[in-house]
């Protein structure tokens, strides 16, 4: 094939069937031409790992729809033998991607970390299924340049999700910076230049960045949990205003530690009992037979529960159950027959 651009469409790739990575002929990218011949195609190898077939992008974090498990040289070019996972098979079945772009190490090599053996290029180290081609309508030459001095390193990128950063800034009282629209630029002749992969981050550096990211995420989660708990404590303290328990500084925190349903029900009963006590104080014949001159059953129950908590080192709910068993009359005075 003598044409400067090898025109090909990748719409006939079926799940599990070999598909053409490179056609025979002359391919040009960024002014550099490469002649893909049968002899060159037979020199291509796979690395010590299974190259991923990425869905939609060459980025390292792009999910893989499968892997390349073999190479074949046919009469019209170099083919990849794919092994698709569920996502990749579904994408192929739907015809979700029209083009693809192989990732190639042309010069240099990759070191097998298990054996230390350097495997020389050309190597197919990946492929990306794309909506638009890298090389016009031709097979894309996505060059993966490997620096010889750093051949034993891997290229890793660690990014903080935008949602996590926004949540952190919100907790710190800052507003995320809105991105500004870039100035329009005239369309380039080449829609997407080749991206070189570099091996500039060591494994230890990558692990340190990951650990720092995870620590930051844990801190954000703890800050959110603390903020939510503080809001609950404030809410229950406000709901206890006007009751005999309003001066109890620990009770709102105890209620906030309970699930919503029992905490809300206890608060409702405390307020109802406080209202009953207020009405009784206004209308009762204080001191007549059968009516004690003083005493608030809600306060008495709370005091008994707290005494039980201090004595047996149990939480509020467990102490309430003990008091119910040992002093049923006191509990009945507060809750009635419930």
Shape: rod-shaped
Order of helices and strands: EEEHEEEHEEEEEHHHHHHH
Class per helix and strand makeup: alpha+beta
Unreliable segments of 5+ consecutive residues: 1-13, 135-160, 189-199, 282-294
Sheet of most strands: 7 strands, mixed
Number of strands: 11
Describe what this molecule looks like in 3D.
There is one protein chain. With 338 residues, this protein is an alpha+beta fold. Among the domains are: 19-129, no CATH class; 236-284, no CATH class; 297-335, no CATH class. The protein has helices spanning 38-43, 86-94, 162-171, 203-239, 251-257, 260-283, 297-312, 316-326, 328-335, and strands at residues 19-23, 25-29, 32-36, 52-55, 64-74, 77-84, 99-105, 109-111, 118-120, 123-130, 142-143. It has a seven-stranded mixed beta sheet with strand order 1-6-5-4-10-7-11. A hairpin with an 8-residue loop joins strand 4 (52-55) and strand 5 (64-74). The radius of gyration is 35 Å and the shape is rod-shaped.
Quick structural gist:
InterPro entries: Phage_Mu_Gp1 (IPR012106). This protein is an alpha+beta fold and 338 residues long.
Name some characteristics of this structure.
two-stranded antiparallel ribbon; plasmid; 7-stranded mixed beta sheet; Phage_Mu_Gp1; alpha+beta; 18% strand; 338 residues; disordered N terminus
Record the SSE blueprint.
Layout: E1 19-23, E2 25-29, E3 32-36, H1 38-43, E4 52-55, E5 64-74, E6 77-84, H2 86-94, E7 99-105, E8 109-111, E9 118-120, E10 123-130, E11 142-143, H3 162-171, H4 203-239, H5 251-257, H6 260-283, H7 297-312, H8 316-326, H9 328-335
Parallel strand pairs: 4-10, 7-11
Antiparallel strand pairs: 1-6, 2-3, 4-5, 5-6, 7-10, 8-9
Helix pairs in contact: 3-4, 4-5, 7-8, 7-9, 8-9
């Amino acid at each position: 094939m003598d044409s400067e651009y090898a025109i090909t469409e990748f719409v006939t790739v079926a799940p599990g069937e070999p598909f053409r990575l490179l056609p025979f002929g002359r391919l040009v990218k960024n002014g550099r031409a490469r002649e893909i011949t049968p002899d060159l195609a037979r020199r291509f190898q796979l690395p010590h790992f299974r190259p991923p077939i990425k869905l939609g992008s060459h980025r390292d974090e792009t999910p893989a729809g499968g892997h390349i498990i073999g190479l074949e040289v046919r009469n019209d070019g170099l083919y990849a033998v794919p092994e698709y996972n569920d996502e990749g098979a579904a994408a192929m079945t739907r015809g979700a991607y029209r083009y693809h772009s192989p990732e190639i190490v042309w010069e240099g090599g990759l070191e097998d970390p298990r054996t230390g053996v350097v495997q020389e290029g050309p190597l197919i180290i990946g492929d990306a299924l794309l909506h638009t081609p890298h090389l016009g309508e031709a097979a894309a030459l996505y060059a993966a340049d490997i620096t010889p001095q750093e051949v034993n390193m891997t290229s890793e990128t660690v990014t903080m999700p935008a949602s996590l950063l926004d949540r952190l800034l919100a907790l710190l009282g800052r507003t995320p910076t809105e991105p500004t629209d870039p100035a329009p630029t005239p369309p380039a002749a080449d829609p997407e230049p080749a991206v070189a992969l570099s091996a500039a981050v060591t494994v230890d550096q990558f692990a340190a960045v990951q650990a720092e990211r995870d620590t930051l995420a844990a801190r954000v989660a703890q800050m959110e949990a603390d903020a939510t708990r503080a809001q609950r404590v404030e809410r229950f303290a406000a709901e206890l205003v006007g009751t005999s328990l309003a001066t109890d500084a620990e009770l709102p925190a105890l209620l906030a530690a309970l699930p919503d349903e029992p905490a809300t029900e206890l608060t409702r009963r405390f307020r109802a009992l406080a209202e009953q006590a207020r009405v009784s104080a206004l209308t009762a014949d204080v001191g007549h037979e059968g009516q004690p001159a003083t005493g608030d059953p809600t306060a008495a129950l709370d005091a008994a529960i707290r005494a039980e908590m201090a004595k047996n080192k149990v939480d509020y709910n467990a102490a309430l159950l003990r008091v119910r068993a040992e002093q049923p009359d006191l509990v009945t005075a507060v809750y009635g027959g419930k």
